[in-house]
Specification:
Shape: globular
Distance between the termini: 33 Å
Largest sheet: 8 strands, mixed
CATH class of the domain at 3-148 and 166-202 and 260-266: Alpha Beta
Order of helices and strands: HHHEHEHEEHEHHEHHHEE
Number of helices: 11
Radius of gyration: 18 Å
């Protein structure tokens, strides 16, 4: 691993250690379920979960009988994932790595899945190459990514008005654009099927929704630290306005939808003969 890759690996681990990832992961479970349904892992198939977090998608694949490897750069999240798997009596392997540097052999997996994780790669073309490299001929790659037009993109645009993105950072919402994905994968894939979906978060009110972001969601925790406590109340109010405009009352609570792109790429070729 080069010095640059070490730097990104360490930065990713630091970022996703912020906040309360377990709380956010619970809210994201429906996205993992949709991704695993799209990947349709069968018993005995090899499945890779890239940026596995605490194992939402990896556990679902393993429960379907797949042989699962989970890649996650953050030691704390790997530990939490291993505990979840052990508590559920689920067997899987965990290792450290990032989407653009996967420590795994060529063509090892029938299905490669990344739920709201590969989208944060600083080098999307390299990440796309790696996802293809570790997937067997005829295999599939499933990606769930926030869209720029959806709530994630709107909230990020709000924050970006107050703090500059790190130098060289690529907008992660590019992964929510099917044409961007086609460009990055190019002729390495035989087909790409994509569709937008929504996951709904429910809170008592808008203030609780903003509180969850600033307290639990790593990117917003980092943004608050960068912006500073003196300016954060202004940003907090703007985030509340965005959420209020996107949300609605439902069953006595405040509900807001997050839009994501679910994309399934098929690789050319077929499974090698046994």
């Amino acid at each position: 691993m080069t010095a640059a890759n070490h730097t990104h690996h360490d930065a990713a681990a630091r970022l996703w250690s912020l906040g309360d990832y377990e709380a956010i992961a619970r809210l994201l479970e429906p996205v993992a379920e949709a991704a695993i349904d799209a990947g349709d892992p069968r018993p005995g198939e090899r499945v890779l979960d890239v940026g596995a977090g605490t194992g939402n998608a990896a556990l679902l694949a393993a429960e379907r009988g797949a042989d699962v490897v989970a890649v996650e750069p953050t030691p704390r999240l790997r530990e939490l994932g291993e505990r979840r798997a052990a508590a559920g009596g689920v067997s899987m392997a965990w290792t450290s790595g990032t989407a653009e540097r996967l420590p795994l052999p060529d063509g090892a997996f029938d299905a490669t899945v990344s739920v709201l994780a590969a989208m944060f790669s600083p080098d999307p073309p390299m990440a796309a190459r790696e996802l293809v490299r570790v997937t067997r001929p005829g295999g599939r790659i499933v990606l769930a990514s926030w869209t720029r037009e959806g709530l994630s993109g709107q909230l990020s645009a709000c924050v970006s008005r107050h703090v500059a993105a790190p130098p060289g950072m690529v907008d992660p919402h590019d992964w929510g654009d099917p044409e961007r994905l086609r460009g990055w994968f190019g002729p390495r894939i035989a087909s790409l099927r994509s569709q937008t979906h929504q996951v709904t978060w429910r809170f008592d009110d808008v203030d609780r929704a903003v509180g969850t972001l600033e307290r639990d969601a790593a990117a917003f925790v980092a943004a608050r630290a960068a912006i500073g406590d003196d300016r954060w109340p202004t940003v907090r109010a703007e985030l509340g306005d965005v959420l209020r405009g996107a949300g609605r009352a439902r069953d006595g609570a405040f509900a807001v939808d997050w839009t994501y792109l679910l994309a399934t790429a098929r690789l050319p070729g077929s499974r090698p003969a046994a």
